[in-house]
């Protein structure tokens, strides 16, 4: 094993020792990579690592990848990362985000109820022809993999006095890697305007959910329940930040009016 891997094994051993017997729960804490909210009040509690734009350049729709996402159902992750990416896209302020998923279906249903005479006529705000077009579409791609690193680490620890007692715990160590991509398409011309990739690799110690790597906990859209979800969310954050560097070079398109807000200082 190389000196770098030996050093890594010793670092894992130190973290295995520090993880023993520690358990705590703190609401709103955890060093989240993706968290917070976005809306008329702006981005609240967004990740410090999230790269942003000074102003939106166009309207954007998130599109499900027709080929699906490469991770096992045994990880019990959400079926789609699109809601997570939608949160980041809105928090970054690079685009105005339009809904082409559940929100659109609800809008269509309301229109059907109006046409059927079920909804009130006076003061009804559901009208045809008011929807905003998506000037760009963003399609995510994801590959997640897991490798057994415990045996290699265990063989190093076995030869080190005082650390050889951690060999059993080291057998639970897994290397988790996620590679994410974001593809941006101009809906007017069908040209792929930009593409960005992001990747994260960490060691899952298998002890109290501890992980080695620049990651921390990930909250938001159901990706905080497992180490696999945390790795995937961080990879998409990395891909998003790479994409913003390209988006900043786009000339802004004509945007529709913003949603009405309360007057400044209103109740």
UniProtKB/TrEMBL annotation:
Residues 1-19 form the signal peptide. The keyword Signal applies. Keywords: Signal. It comes from the Bacteria. This is CsgG/HfaB family protein. It comes from Pelomonas candidula. The lineage of its organism: Bacteria, Pseudomonadati, Pseudomonadota, Betaproteobacteria, Burkholderiales.
């Amino acid at each position: 094993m190389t000196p770098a891997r030996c050093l890594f094994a010793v670092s894992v051993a130190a973290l295995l020792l520090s993880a023993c017997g520690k358990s705590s729960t703190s609401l709103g804490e955890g060093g989240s990579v993706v968290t917070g909210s976005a809306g008329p009040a702006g981005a609240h509690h967004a990740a410090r690592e999230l790269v942003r734009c000074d102003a939106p350049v166009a309207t954007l729709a998130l599109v499900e990848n027709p080929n699906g996402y490469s991770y096992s159902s045994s990880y019990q992750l959400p079926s789609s990362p699109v809601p997570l990416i939608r949160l980041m896209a809105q928090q970054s302020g690079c685009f105005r985000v339009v809904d082409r998923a559940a929100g659109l279906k609800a809008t269509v249903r309301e229109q059907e109820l109006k046409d059927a005479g079920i909804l009130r006529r006076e003061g009804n705000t559901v009208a045809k022809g008011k929807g905003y077009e998506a000037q760009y579409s963003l399609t995510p791609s994801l590959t997640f993999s897991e490798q057994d690193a415990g045996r290699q680490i265990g063989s190093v620890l076995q030869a080190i006095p005082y650390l050889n007692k951690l060999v059993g715990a080291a057998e639970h160590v897994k290397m988790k890697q996620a590679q994410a991509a974001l593809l941006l398409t101009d809906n007017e011309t069908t040209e792929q305007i930009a593409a960005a990739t992001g990747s994260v690799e960490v060691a899952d110690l298998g002890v109290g959910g501890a992980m080695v790597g620049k990651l921390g906990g990930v909250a938001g859209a159901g990706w905080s329940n497992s180490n696999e979800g945390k790795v995937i969310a961080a990879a998409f954050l990395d891909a998003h930040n790479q994409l913003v560097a390209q988006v900043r070079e786009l000339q802004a398109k004509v945007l529709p009016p913003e949603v009405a807000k309360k007057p400044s200082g209103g109740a």
